[in-house]
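ok here's Dihydrolipoyl dehydrogenase, seq below lol
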Amino acid sequence: MNNKFDLIVIGAGPGGYIAAIRASQLGMSVACIDAWSNINGNPAPGGTCTNVGCIPSKALLQSSEYFDHVNHSFHTHGIEISNAKININNFLKRKDNIVKQNNEGILYLFKKNKVSFFHGKGSFFGKENDQWLIKVKNKEESILSAKNVIIATGSIAREFPNIAFDEQTILSNDGALSINTVPKKLGIIGAGVIGLELGSVWRRLGADVTILESAPNFLAAADSQISKEAFKLFTKQGLKINVGIEVKDISYSKNSVSVKYKDSSSNNHEIIFDKLIVSIGRIPFTKDLNAESVGLTLDSKGFISVDNYCKTNLQNIWAIGDVVRGPMLAHKAEEEGVFVAEMIAGQKGHLNFNNIPWVIYTSPEIAWVGKNEQQLKELKRDYKIGSFPFIANGRARALGDTSGFVKIIADKYTDEVLGVHIIGAMASELISEAVTIMEFKGSSEDIARIWHAHPTLSESLKEAALALDNRSLNY
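and the structure came out like this:
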């Protein structure tokens, strides 16, 4: 097998495999190295997103939402079902099958696009002339070489200080996706995306879920109106969300875990859980790169230092995705992958970090793009707001899910859309229209004048845009 390439990509997560494919499309000879393995030891490309993140969590969210509908809302449609039960083995098996399909899909795409795939850990081995040497270690070792290298090794879950994940009682997102019995009492440290999504999954299946968040405000990254609405809806569903918490001590055995904490009023508490999910963020994964041997610069938090073009301090070494600055989002990594591949090919890439959409796949879903009110107030930007509730939308009524609203923020004078914030059914799909409008610096009037099919949830964006000028037609 040829071991010399134009480009070597270390990591086959969303950023890495996309970068490899795009580079191959542009005429480069490309190798992609990835160490993920499935339960049988076979290659499992796709990174955290495919194996223990985005894909499996959405599979469990969808299955658990169906179960929740069976028990709580199907009767409103005239569908009578009694004594519905959850088969955890099949529940998890479906998730595993979806992950496998995605793994196999990436391997197929590599073959289709003539990307050479190497299963194993990739690390720097040195340099000869203008060629970087990369060692691949699995059962055997081999040395690859290329002029260009893209590092896309992703991130791993952050452990609570002095408490390691055993994935039985103290769980990362990995273990939380494979719980084989519904815990009676489930604790979660961290009310971010992972905590809320996994908390929603197991609450729907019958667990008593308590979330402990250190920040004083719930979902501080979202628009404050969205956060307040989300808190109201999630607590009504049964999630117990506590903010301003200081965890003082965690102790655990095989069957239980004790969490002692101080609340926002400085009162001390202790709760005994069956299992505890720790979702306090993620850290870049660089420990197996042998970065120090070649002088690759990392910042104080362990991220690989890059400029605005994803270039590291070393010639022809690039880094993308969770291992560099910016939000840890799969679609951010993908676009950086395309960007760098095109830069290497001599093209002019495109990245606009201001228009990255954010999504939380709870029920209702939450999505936003651009600035929220808090940020615009800090910037002392003059703005105007239009909003529209889904309860006034015909399609939402037909779906039986009228919770939430759409909020559009535009410049007071130019009408340029500065931010769009949605909480409601299918928010993850609706946000794309807002991203498109903002990418072309469109106005709220543009949204108001665009045809929207009736009846659709997307009409709520049109109505919110009309509301900026006090001319909403259906509310």
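fwiw The mean pLDDT is 97. kinda neat tbh
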